[in-house]
Amino acid sequence: MSNAVIIGKGPAGISAALYLIRAGIPTTVVGRDDGALGKVKKIENYYGFEQPVSGEDLLCTGIRQAERLGVELVADEVLGITYDGSLNVQTKKGEYKAGSVVLATGSSRTSPRLPGLKELEGHGVSYCAVCDAFFYRGKDVAVLGGGDYAVHEAMELLPTSRSVTLLTNGGEPQTEIPEPLKVCRNEIASLEGDRSLQRVVFRDGTELQAAGLFVALGVAGSTELARKVGAATENGRIVVDENMATTVPGLFAAGDCTGGMLQIAKAVYEGAQAGTQAAKYLRKNEAAAK
Description:
alpha/beta; FAD/NAD(P)-binding domain; 2 domains; five-stranded parallel beta sheet; 7 helices; 18 strands
């Protein structure tokens, strides 16, 4: 039987998992941490709780419910998704093949505040190495970040770029850096260029000549993962239809990453819809294959 992989263990992801597992679909949820909701101390506007509940308690209750029904929970970091007729979820620890995938890791609510960044987006500043590496063949590029996700992006660029430099912006790398990569720990002052990015200027007055800068801070969110696999995005959100389906067959999205109200109630509904429709998609494909 075809399986489903859900990326994100928040309300949207767990809600999708509940509907998939109850439909008889083997389901794996891959999640790294509790996200923004895990830091919320008091929730008073969610249905069914007479007294305020913490985000952590709400998350733990949902996870226990999913595990009781047979959902597999995996603690891992997702680095990318590829599509070659089927979906492959690449993680720090390995890879998962899936008949269907639900993106539910929330939305990125922070971005680096660097002079020149916004102005140069699409003109040397990118958020997806797989999408844009082609445009920087034989050129010097940089990746902003110091974790596993940043290293993953940098390794995607190495085969085609003349050089790849990892910029940690004043911090230390949070992971082991493979030997081909250069590392610059200097704090960034600004990004500069006439019509496109030409250089990164550091606070100590030094500069790095670069035709491209790939932003890869923290971990890959749903929108970044969607871009990598070729799904349509718009204004920082994933484009979905009424069934929570993206433009990539078998790929669904739910929760904050689809835009609109950033509320638990919306995430739970969209997760239920995504899980239901993913199950229908898998059954339809199985029937067609017989």
